Amino acid sequence: MQAMDTAQLIALAGALGWASGVRLYLVVLLTGLAGFMGWMQLPQGLHLLAHPVVLGASGFMVFVEFFADKIPGLDSLWDVVHTLIRIPAGAALAAGVFGADSGLMALVAALMGGTLAATSHAAKATTRAAINTSPEPFSNVGASLLEDGLVPAGLWLAIAHPLVFVLVLLLVLVLSVWLIRLCWRFLAQLFARVARIFSGKPDTGLPPAFTLKSPFSKND
To answer: Which of 38, 74, 93, 160 could share a disulfide with 16, CB 3.0–4.6 Å?
Structure first.
């Protein structure tokens, strides 16, 4: 096993931060397994993830989250609860890539990891909440399975092709901001409609859900 170079470390910190906002426990499990099985040399600050107790706990939580995330309504509740967990965990994992010996880089990585985790978590939570307004469960399950696959793919790409990962991450961030704006507008209109109905005002109809619009558009 060779130690990771600087580009790989930066990409790994970004991947851990971003992926923690989507599947925190899967990130911990896969990273720990990679070190435990000798697939890669973990940075000193992440060695704890390869401990058998941590692997067992994260594996159990991956099992629970896999099913909880595919039940409409429960998935959104799960996201709400994990708002206070995923973001600081993403910051801590990203900082762990550089460890205590690189104080400045660890601080920068923590800020980056927390920001990426917050962005991906917000995109996931708002998108899934919007999807849950549909009565059929298949789109929910499909979105969840897509997230299950994106996390290991992102972690692998960060190690195997760090520069490619950085470019892909930038595109994902643009898409995430667009999804957050789109889904938030839809949910706000939906909540406003429900409020009108309960207040006895005329119902003006369903809000226009998921109208495709360029993320670079200046019009709201």
So the answer is: 93
